[in-house]
Amino acid sequence: MKNYALAIHGGAGTILKNTMTPEKELLYKNGLQHAIEAGETVLKSGGSAFDAVEKAIIELENNSLFNAGKGAVFTNNGTHELDASIMNGSNLMAGAVAGVHNIKNPIALARGVMEQSEHVLLTGNGAMDFAKKINTPLENDDYFFVQLRYDQLQQALQNNTMVLDHTVDKTKNNEKKFGTVGCVALDMNGNLAAGTSTGGMTNKKFGRVGDSAIIGAGTYANNKTCAISCTGHGELFMRSVVAYDISCLMEYKNLTLKEACQVVVMDKLVKIGGEGGLIALDSNGNIELPFNSDGMYRASKKQNQQIFIGIYK
Ligand code: ASP
Q1: Other beta carbons less than 10 A from residue 159's beta carbon
Q2: With a 6 A CB cut-off, is 81 part of the ligand 1 pocket?
Q3: What pTM was estimated for this model as a whole?
Q4: Rounded CA gap, 77 and 303, in Å?
Q5: N or C: which end of the chain has fewer CB within 10 A?
């Protein structure tokens, strides 16, 4: 029997203490705490890492503070297009969706793709047809309307930029971050799992899909090495195949989890301007939460240890 462990993130980016109020900080911390507790409840009772990952992410998707599910950012068209993926490290099974809308919990739909289709990644209208076929809970547009997100879109449209949800204009004292969400878990049977869910980037166009939907880029899990969930500028994370690269450095070069995270997040990504971070967990229960941005909403918990919650560097 192994000691269980898990970690979650709520996005990385320009998260500065001087732009945060104590009230908001408390809301984020509570959001992270509830999500990690939801995942831990599964692991504590002997449940699987895979179930724990889904549970923790659903909790984050239902919280409008985070850019996933209910709190997803707006596209250029004023709609929401959601991406999510989940992977089981014990058998390398995976499921993912991209560009779906009105789905209450995209991570559950990603799981549905893995378990109830013969495919790994479904997109757009086809994914919506599949969601209806397996009776995935839907919500109307009002559910996804969050004033802050709408204001972010108006600003992005004015500046004609596509913005990472958590990128804040450092010259202005405005609050506009909170990214993608993710979870990695190790259960008592020694199985690893990882999942990621996002609304992507504010003002995204043309059916843009980020790393969160891509197995190997934003999400990866393999019992032989590690479980990874990423957050940051998706284009750069895809080009760097971040999650799988960490696993490969461990598998083929025998690097430790810590060393592999250091190489990928603090060196390779930085060199190509890939701002962001990730949560990582290996099969021995070691946890790494590296990021090269100003901050990352993050929390972790190991069996018989205190919960850790962090926001800033
Ligand atoms: N990685 C996500 C994307 O590019 C965004 C984020 O992490 O906030 O879609």
Answers
A1: 11
A2: no
A3: 0.95
A4: 45
A5: N
> Are 164 and 73 contacting, i.e. CB atoms less than 8 angstroms apart?
no
Ligand 1 centroid vs 199 CA: distance in angstroms?
A: 8
- Ligand 1 centroid to residue 44 C-alpha, Å: 30
Give the Cα separation of 168 and 302 in Å (integer). Answer: 32
Rounded-to-integer distance, Cα 14 and Cα 168, Å: 6
Domain, as residue range, for 111:
5-312
Answer for the pair 83, 107: CB distance below 8 angstroms, yes or no. no
CA-nearest residue for atom 4, ligand 1, is 234
Phi and psi of 37, rounded to 5°?
A: -65, -35
CATH of the domain at 173: 3.60.20.30
Domain count, the chain: 1
Q: Which residues are catalytic?
A: 180
3-state helix, strand, coil in the chain (%, to 5): 35, 25, 40
Structural contact between residues 270 and 252, judged by C-beta atoms closer than 8 angstroms = no
- pLDDT in tens for each of the 313 residues of the chain? 999 999 999 999 888 888 889 999 999 999 999 999 999 999 999 999 999 999 999 999 999 999 999 999 999 999 999 999 999 999 999 999 999 999 999 999 999 999 999 999 999 999 999 999 999 999 999 999 988 889 888 988 888 777 766 665 544 434 334 479 999 999 999 999 999 999 999 889 999 999 999 999 999 999 999 999 999 999 999 999 999 999 999 999 999 999 999 999 999 999 999 999 999 999 999 999 999 999 999 999 999 999 999 999 9
- CA 64 → CA 109, 147, 205, 228, 254, distances in Å? 19, 10, 22, 24, 40
Residue of 143, 224, 213 lying closest to 190 (CA atoms): 224
User: Which of 83, 164, 229 for a ligand 1 pocket mutation test, highest count of atoms within 8 Å of Cβ?
Assistant: 164
